[in-house]
Design a protein that fits this description.
The structure is a homotetramer of 388-residue chains. Chain A has helices at 19-25, 35-52, 65-76, 90-102, 119-128, 150-160, 208-215, 247-263, 265-286, 313-324, 353-367, 374-386, and strands at 8-10, 59-61, 82-87, 105-110, 132-138, 140-141, 146-147, 163-167, 186-189, 202-206, 302-306, 326-330, 339-343. Chain A has 388 residues and is of the alpha/beta class. In chain A, the strands form three sheets. A seven-stranded mixed β-sheet of chain A has the order 2-10-9-8-5-3-4, with helices on both faces. In chain A, strands 1-12-13-11 form a four-stranded mixed β-sheet, with helices on one face. A two-stranded antiparallel ribbon of chain A has the order 6-7. The longest helix of chain A has 22 residues, at 265-286. Chains in contact: A-B, A-C, A-D, B-C, B-D, C-D. The interface between A and B is large, with 57 and 57 residues.
Chain lengths: 388, 388, 388, 388
Amino acid sequence: MSVAVPHLLLTTGPVAAYADVLNALARPVPYDGDPAFLAFYEAVIGKLRTAMRLSSLPVILQGEAILGIEAAAASLIAREDVVLNLVSGVYGKGFAVWARRHGAEIVELQVPYNEAIDPAAVECALKARPDIRVVSVCHHETPSGTLNPVAEIGAVVAAHGGFLIVDAVSSFGGMDVHPEAVHADIFVASPSKCLGATPGLTLLGISARAWEKMRSNPGAPRASFLSLLDWEHAWRRDRPFPVTPSIAEIHGLDAALDRHLAEGPEAVWARHALTASATRAGVKALGLDLWPSREAIAAPMVTVIRVPDGLSDVAIRDTMRDRYSVLISLGRGETAGKVLRIGHMGPAAQPINAVTVVGALGGACRALGYEVRISEGCEAALAGIDSG
Amino acid sequence: MSVAVPHLLLTTGPVAAYADVLNALARPVPYDGDPAFLAFYEAVIGKLRTAMRLSSLPVILQGEAILGIEAAAASLIAREDVVLNLVSGVYGKGFAVWARRHGAEIVELQVPYNEAIDPAAVECALKARPDIRVVSVCHHETPSGTLNPVAEIGAVVAAHGGFLIVDAVSSFGGMDVHPEAVHADIFVASPSKCLGATPGLTLLGISARAWEKMRSNPGAPRASFLSLLDWEHAWRRDRPFPVTPSIAEIHGLDAALDRHLAEGPEAVWARHALTASATRAGVKALGLDLWPSREAIAAPMVTVIRVPDGLSDVAIRDTMRDRYSVLISLGRGETAGKVLRIGHMGPAAQPINAVTVVGALGGACRALGYEVRISEGCEAALAGIDSG
Amino acid sequence: MSVAVPHLLLTTGPVAAYADVLNALARPVPYDGDPAFLAFYEAVIGKLRTAMRLSSLPVILQGEAILGIEAAAASLIAREDVVLNLVSGVYGKGFAVWARRHGAEIVELQVPYNEAIDPAAVECALKARPDIRVVSVCHHETPSGTLNPVAEIGAVVAAHGGFLIVDAVSSFGGMDVHPEAVHADIFVASPSKCLGATPGLTLLGISARAWEKMRSNPGAPRASFLSLLDWEHAWRRDRPFPVTPSIAEIHGLDAALDRHLAEGPEAVWARHALTASATRAGVKALGLDLWPSREAIAAPMVTVIRVPDGLSDVAIRDTMRDRYSVLISLGRGETAGKVLRIGHMGPAAQPINAVTVVGALGGACRALGYEVRISEGCEAALAGIDSG
Amino acid sequence: MSVAVPHLLLTTGPVAAYADVLNALARPVPYDGDPAFLAFYEAVIGKLRTAMRLSSLPVILQGEAILGIEAAAASLIAREDVVLNLVSGVYGKGFAVWARRHGAEIVELQVPYNEAIDPAAVECALKARPDIRVVSVCHHETPSGTLNPVAEIGAVVAAHGGFLIVDAVSSFGGMDVHPEAVHADIFVASPSKCLGATPGLTLLGISARAWEKMRSNPGAPRASFLSLLDWEHAWRRDRPFPVTPSIAEIHGLDAALDRHLAEGPEAVWARHALTASATRAGVKALGLDLWPSREAIAAPMVTVIRVPDGLSDVAIRDTMRDRYSVLISLGRGETAGKVLRIGHMGPAAQPINAVTVVGALGGACRALGYEVRISEGCEAALAGIDSG
């Protein structure tokens, strides 16, 4: 029996998958050693390369994106490396655990969790510690709904000669961000956010110098589920896969890439951006506050709002779900209890959802005794779409 | 576009998935924090517990079975542990890499790859080295099609007071093997072999004393994709998942367990056993040789045969595929080039497939100039079914 | 490649199907003569009987509902029969074609297409023409969004001793209407409206006296796709089906009935009713007019509104689709060009959709230069849900 | 819960559907009035036209193929027409019911049900009765497994100036037969036989003169589920569909046509032909008799064999199903009790199935006490493939 899924899933991940993806998951299972499957796998890698705008071949790891992030840390950061970890939220902070585990020393540049990293500050930090070898940054802090200026940060790191790890798990596919454009050495993306596929894989763009550094890192995992090196040549038809691929997930990814490229990345990004701006307009008109310190850093993927004074985040979430069958997400880690998060990624990136969720959110607040301006909220959300 | 899957997939994994599993993969994606999903996950854990005949709750790791095996080694084997690794094939041998990585010393008891481990030899080895703390064994050596007597070995290890890791990846679900019955402390199984689901998860049965040992092992991975400890309480509805579950795979597993329990495990085992005995009868009547030294240790899951003198394994495999649309597997590691492997797991465990594959194998040998007795082969395979 | 389906389908049929239905359509195809399929078919008939609250067995015809209506006319109406055709809309009117084709004379009782039939008028008509043998009525006039009081009409017809054909195609499953409760002799329903399955079958409840009348009607189709008599014993396992069943559609119906009964018919009806009342409240608050002459006869399945003066129905529909990805239906036949129709059947019967569609409709009107009160509309739709 | 489908379905229809078809059935349901759906429908019509090699547009009726055959009779045969009905089996005979219902007089040319119609006899019959206006023939008599020489018959009918109705329901897609090549005025085909889709639609090729004759036939159904005329312009985007299309079935047909054209019709035909010849070789070597009087008229779609003396058809069928999970069909009508039928259409048209079914059939006969030469049967089936 299927899980009873709410009518409208506006969560921060897993998100609803596109219908084409769900159908693709049901394709018959081929044998991973069959030349027909190897040719198919190569074709998927090719589509992913196109979507990632890579000059080299991307890598697919057979576990959801956190595997890719841990693998990046374990593989790229050598025992002697000093790491600059840029922290503007829960995921950036979390990376420190792995950086510390694998590196020599970790330097952190931290801003409040509703702020973004300033590239100039990164430049200062690198000047202060010329021995910094690896820099890590989370592009989209999903628990905060904020973006870091990765392209600018990447330029600074490149000028410094450092290696850059970019967590673009919840931004890739939903906006204009690509590995080489942001000077990433390892760029970690996910099929289960803006691409609208299911969780179970990590998508990685890896630079030539990152491969070289990993190969020369004796601590880099080999013969391990955490290994990136094991996968360097996985695209070659004469090599067996290091581990059995998650075949159904590869099928889903194939369909997700097909539809992403068919709709056109620019159109997909515009859909995400318009949904976000309309949602923000509606939420503000309701009389609620956005969590990001300013709209310029608010992400097109997730709209994060402060929990209204005196209300419980769980009560609002549950009321929206029970009364309107609209499900949003709570905060996470540091932002838990402080925020509510409206995801609009993949199929949920539909501008009209702004009207719906603002109505549902407004209705829940009112039902819990908190006065909001529902009429203005819906009207503003709609106007936000129309002005898009 | 789907991969063109051969008509009959008699591979050793990935194997064809049951139709109910494929359909379940296409279910809508719920949010992993939704109470409705948490209740569903708990129900799946409950079904798995029933199938595994466990008194405690099993664990699902979010990567295919090799993740579970590596995680077991990394978690259970402490820096000071002496490990006895039982080797009767490629996978047993492969475990040594992880045992060596995490333990103090590794002792190996090895037999030829067409033989099985003798429990008496295990007893001797343990007597010779009373400091052995962990024993590891692969139940079904898929590259050899041979079974080790895990229940007897388990009894010996238990009497010794050791901890036992059992790789039952390609046997669980296809025959009568369960964690507690074989005294396993960590028992590693897979949805994508005899259960007929897709690769992407590991299923683990873990004893109370294994949990205790892992908790007290400072080297056991924590905050890692390789961690078992992170998942100890994942079944609790008030805890977030350590990583996002591979939701589609959980859907598939749910359907696989439903049909496994509905058909009845005993009936499923009988289907595997009959397919195997009929296939062995047919192959021998063709005039070919089985790889296992004796039929008593031949597995009900995979029939492994020696490549006929003068023929190429690849040529036979390709001829069977191209001419008859029947796909079997080659050898792996040490057995590569020496054997051909006919998988009959999950939906492929259908006795009549014995007739089909014996015909196709015979036809391929003959086409390549090697004389076989096709009439006798098919007749014997059929008789093998009828005598079942 | 899939058809690009708008984000929100609020059409009057075909409507979006439930996810469980879509998955069921993908089940493997069994042979219709296989005893396993016959047992399954019988089980589906049993579920349908439960849903229809029938004391006898229902019939499934292998074509969408218009087949069932034509078959009912052709089978029940004999060459000598006088038929009273009750007309309150396009579908009622359309039935006259078949009544005239098969009967002796047709008497029509017609009301404007935004009105409902008065049972007292039916009583008068029957008194005026005691020779009326068959009465036909459409319960829910989908092109008008209006309901006729079928239970009361049924009582009048029963007192008269007439035979009653009820077209409940777009109401069954969405509200409390069942064959025996409305004294229907032939009750025609559909899987592809409120049950949320796909078009391709008709569901019929047939009284014992209707079977008798058909058997004694020499003109009733036999050995024909239009035949009902051919199907009288189709549920019997020892009879072959008159025509090959549309197996995938039966699979879909099975899943639709499972979920209908699992959610509970009363809960399904409440969901439809609340969506409709909230939508009506929102539409009125926008400043638009409902098509039905009074709300008491407005259906819980479809909300029909007058096209605002000076606007084009097609322009509104297209603007809603292009700008907001919300698709509604135009009028049909007599109501074409005069109305717009918002369907909320099956999965679309979600109260929060009232807010969404009122926003989208308001936005389209405004974009086309027609002033509406969007704030009030959304607010009223939400209030309509909250007061439900 | 899915119906438990036997492992190998070698039935005469419904047959197993291709995986791509099953997946397509699960696509989301669009609205039939949506321009996006109309464009899609037009594309499907275009693919069908290609597959049918038509110079005009084909028609899709929304019910399984018997609807198309009845509709052809009702539409083309006028009240004054004399019909020559060619009978070589159950379906040809069955057509007489409809011909008689709609025409003035019916002339029958009948041969034994294991024989084929001789075109010279048709020529004689037409000369004897110059007033014959319509000729009907079944190309592949599925209950007999025999083919009629439709191209030659068509040439004779064309020379006579008659109208030809061809029932190609179970041959189209499985061999080289197309409407215009056989001079058919109405050519009736099915998605659920050799195309490997599901039952629920009829595919029709209709000549310009047939359209003209139907338009001038006052008895041709109009405003009816049985109407062909209603569908003449259904492909036009500015016309509503006469009845709601069975959308899921259209999705399935779309996928079936895609894969048919991608594999290549010639390759599909070769696959059917080779499966049939290998099956016939095997069956004969078993020591059983084919039903067709000679192999030259045996169809590539179905192999029909005589029930061995003293055995029950049902017992053989049931033994094959229960013991080997291979399901074949019984006879039908006149051939019921006399024959067993092995279907190899669509995905079942796999040459290696010849070995499997010959083994299973042989095993069943032997189990029931009838001596057959199983070794020779399997060997001959395999040799049949290899000589192909």
